[in-house]
Structures are given as C-alpha cells and as structure tokens.
Design goal:
alpha+beta; 2 domains; 5-stranded mixed sheet; globular
Amino acid sequence: MKLLLQMGLLAGLLAPALAVVGLTCGIRALAAMRRRPGRLPVRLLAIGAIVASGMYLAFVARAIYVEEAGGRRDAADLSHLAHLGVALQRYRCDHEGALPSASTWCDDLRPYVASQAAFVPPSRPRLRSGYAYNSALSRVQYSALSQPERTVAIFESDRGWNASGGPRLLPTNPRHLNRRDFYLFCDGYTSGCSRDRSRALQWQPRANMQQLQMDGRSHE
C-alpha cells in the first residue's frame, strides 16, 4: 500500500514534466514527418500525443489559475471579516464591554467602519450584508465570556442586513475552497472551517464564573 502511494505521488509530480516532453516530441516528430513522409498511423500517433499533452497542460494551467483566484478571493473575504472584528472591538469599548444587539448589529457597527462596503464580501457583491451575527451574544458582556477566542461572533450568511442566528444561517453552499466557511471570533480572530465542523464550533457563550461572582457581589 505504501509503495502504491509513493508511486502515485511520483506520477503526480512527474506528470506535468512528461506532458511537456510528450508535447515537444510530438511536435518534432510531426515536423520530421512533413519533411520525410511516413506512415499514416505514426502521423496520427504524433498528432494524438500533441493533443493529449496540450489538453493536460491546459487543464493544469486552469487548475492553478482557479486555485490562485480562489486564494485571492478568500484573502479579500477574510480582510472584510477582520475589519468587522475591529469594529466589534471598538463598539464594545464604547459600550462598557457590551456586545451588539442581535437585531441591530449591522446598524450598531456601521459607525465603526469606513463604509458599508465592509459588510459586502467580494464573493457576494450583490448582498447588502454577506454576514450574520451569533444571536446568542446579543448584549452579552465581553468580560463574562470564558473563551472569547473560541466563541463565534460573526459568520458568513446570505440572509442580509442585521441577520442573526446560528449555524442554520450559513450559506446553502460554502463560499470557499474545500467547502469552508469563514468566521470571526469574539477576540477578533478570523479563521476558516469546513462545513462538516461548523456545529462543533462554540456558538453558545460560556460564562466566566469569576466575573459573574464579581457582578453578583457588586449588586449586593
């Protein structure tokens, strides 16, 4: 089994080089046959080698282009989420540590971004907002979160302005390569996660018991 995997890897690495060699040899053979007429089957074989090698190289070039384009689009989408993360931190600093309301979160963050375009990811340019807010965080105190770095704050969604809820609001089809969705966590960190693992993320905030005890004493 290990030998087969090694052979498969070697073939994958050598395939582009072999395609270039096949294309070159086919062209040279066809040129030689024009100067010295040969058998029809040999001529057809040379033409077939040229066509097959050219098609393979075109496929490889397209795959590389698609991957690079997807990578640039992914980077742009993450940049938009990062801007919303900065806006979220600025909002809570101005509101005594409270996170935005689930029903008005876009309106709440709008004064903290340069333009409304921050809510529009490049992968969904026709949406007024391409994100949704974790409704479980509505007006929650940031200091009460025990694991802000693991708690989802904003995530991708096609539901529009001020959309809020949970993983059910994710796009029907993931927007990114390898079926990934992008998330902003409460500490401002952005990351991608495959759709299969979306429900394993932390959606319900876990309370910081020490902070809750301090709040309780302050009300006594």
